[in-house]
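Shipment paperwork, digital attachment
Item: protein structure file
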Amino acid sequence: MTATRAEVCVAACAEAWRGDGAILASFAGVVPQLGARLAQLTFAPDLLVTDGEATLLRDGAIEGWLPYRQVFALVAAGRRHVMMGASQLDRHGNSNISCIGDWQRPKRQLLGVRGAPGNTINHTTSYWIPRHSPRVLVDRVDMVSGIGGDRGAHEIRVVVTDLAVLDFDSPGHAMRLRSTHPGVTVAEVVAATGFPLVIPGHVPQTREPTAEELQLIRERLDPEGRRDR
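Attachment content:
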């Protein structure tokens, strides 16, 4: 079975939680949600996955209850790994979900900082960027909502986009190209990024989902095909 780009992204998001153990997986967006659930069903059975509110789920069934006050306790204790979205993201993983333009007089008002400051200072954070472009991966964010490695973030682990997987495993915690998705070249990723990336000597291809993973994605996790939208 040949995987679609969306399915490659789901598997790449799942990999972000590999080795985390019994922590809370949180997410923003369909693809990271599917990734967390896929990880739980395969290589990360101890992962706790919520419905985005107060219910813990396993394979779509209710596993437990997680009231909001306990979420804050997990955040403070570092027992959470969230995959957030970002309107802007810079080379050190500083993110912006607050406004576009000058803070005093922005061109666009967005969500506000929400939980980004507490997430990035307290526990592991990754990012899902569904459209990799210089407008999103920018040299300097207009406002820092979530802090990056140069500002004392706990850990910014990976950035999964529709073109590649990136991390910060480099001197100075600058964004590094970890892998390109099947059919994507290094040059295409570089052209779609608004700052110089750290490019290792060999850039592998992002792994494709296994046959078992594809079956889980297509038949159990997302038979409606929400991932492609």
